[in-house]
UniProtKB/TrEMBL annotation:
NCBIfam families: mfs. The lineage of its organism: Bacteria, Pseudomonadati, Pseudomonadota, Alphaproteobacteria, Hyphomicrobiales. This is 3-phenylpropionic acid transporter. Keywords: Cell inner membrane, Cell membrane, Membrane, Transmembrane, Transmembrane helix, Transport. The keyword S-adenosyl-L-methionine does not apply. It is found in: Cell inner membrane.
Length: 405
């Protein structure tokens, strides 16, 4: 691959209010997800879908985006500006989400979900790619920008729970549609950074030496390990809201439980640089994997042991470890080892890894929940362990040099 030229003089100028604009992008980006993840399964159940149908509707789009997301993120890398691709995909997502207003038959919901995932899934990797360009070019702090996504996700969890407690689950498609509309408006102010460029005047030989191809052992083991640890959360994402409702927990409390986990995630974003900034990405990911294992051991025991809703709040605190550390650790790895002109492709590969393994586990989660109920969480433990083994293999093939700003 031929190296791209250094940053142009215009690209060395930091866009006005870059961090604020990226913070707004992340804030609006995560509102639809903050409604979809906890409450979409409840909407499916309210429309008569059984556990296996819910698993298919949730998993099938994940398999599709494994193929489509890397293609679209690579397209964004080649576009005149990644922000233009982001705006176009957000507009497409708004239009496609209106499909949920149609009669919610199994075939219709599955078709809309498949179409929507093509446009929706690249939002996060493209936004991450823009943010990482700011980190490289201008020294921006990724965690300080990305935390606003977690804050909005928290707000969506809480607001969604209270709205649904008043209106019922049929409001879910309306909230998602409105959220995409707000995200499209904010997308119009996304910072324009031009095409990705390398941020230092290295020679072509230096770039090739310091920025190895993405298909190397370290990047692949690490990305797959991240994907497998993330996939161990599939049972939680697909069925925990349904489980909580089945034991008599109301919509508003379900929203609070989801929100508490995200609050822990925000807390991790706020303290990460100060507490964990000097840790290696492998160490960070090992902590995340251990946090996930502890969650899956604890979840099925809380209600039988009489720990009540307070016990669920306690175990949801580990969201700050098993999820936030994965998010930050992945971006830290890409920032340290991938050249800027490859960050879009790197984000796409990593997101596809997450999507593929999460899709597989989500598909298995329907029968698991049907047969074992909450005890299905125990099946997530060996999955997280496999992820930790892969992270260990990544550590053995880690590169000796990092990419600087």
């Amino acid at each position: 691959m031929s190296s791209l030229p250094p940053l142009s003089p215009e690209q060395l100028v930091k866009p006005r209010h870059f961090e604020l604009r990226m913070g707004l992008i992340f804030f609006t980006l995560f509102v639809p997800l903050g409604i979809h993840l906890p409450y979409f399964p409840l909407w499916l159940q309210a429309n008569g879908f059984d556990a296996e149908q819910i698993a298919v509707v949730l998993a099938a789009p994940m398999f599709l985006r494994v193929v489509t997301t890397p293609l679209l993120t690579a397209l964004a890398d080649r576009a005149s500006d990644r922000a233009h691709v982001y705006v176009a995909l957000m507009a497409a997502s708004l239009a496609l989400s209106a499909g949920y207003f149609l009669t919610p038959s199994y075939a219709m919901v599955l078709a809309v979900s498949l179409a929507l995932t093509v446009a929706w899934t690249p939002h996060s990797p493209i936004a991450d790619s823009l943010a990482l360009s700011g980190v490289r070019r201008f020294g921006s702090n990724y965690a300080n920008m990305r935390k606003w996504g977690s804050i909005s996700y928290l707000c969506a969890n809480l607001a969604g729970g209270f709205i649904l407690s008043a209106t019922g689950a049929q409001a879910v498609p309306v909230i998602i549609f409105v959220a995409f509309g707000a995200a499209l408006v904010v997308a119009l102010i996304a910072p324009r950074l031009g095409r990705p460029r390398r941020a230092s005047p290295l020679s072509a030989a230096d770039i090739q030496h310091s920025a190895p191809k993405l298909l190397n052992g370290y990047f692949l083991y690490f990305s797959i390990g991240v994907g497998v640890i993330t996939a161990s959360h599939a049972f939680l994402y697909g069925f925990v809201s349904i489980y909580w409702k089945s034991i008599g927990i109301g919509d508003s409390v379900v929203g609070l439980l989801w929100g508490w986990g995200v609050l822990a995630e925000i807390g991790m974003f706020m303290i990460f640089t100060r507490v964990f900034g000097s840790f290696s990405v492998v160490s960070i990911m090992v902590m995340a994997g251990i946090g996930a294992i502890v969650r899956w051991i604890a979840f099925p025991l809380i209600w039988p042991l009489g720990l009540g809703v307070g016990g669920f709040f306690a175990v949801q605190t580990l969201h700050g470890v098993s999820v936030a550390l994965v998010l930050i650790g992945l971006q830290k790895m890409i920032g340290e080892t991938v050249a800027e002109e490859r960050t879009g492709a790197a984000q796409g590969i990593a997101y596809s890894s997450n999507g593929f393994f999460t899709a597989v586990v989500t598909l298995l989660s329907g029968p698991l929940y049907d047969r074992f109920g909450v005890d299905g969480f125990f099946a997530m433990i060996p999955i997280a362990l496999v992820g930790l083994v892969l992270i260990g293999l990544a550590a053995r093939s880690a590169p000796q040099r990092r990419i600087g700003r």
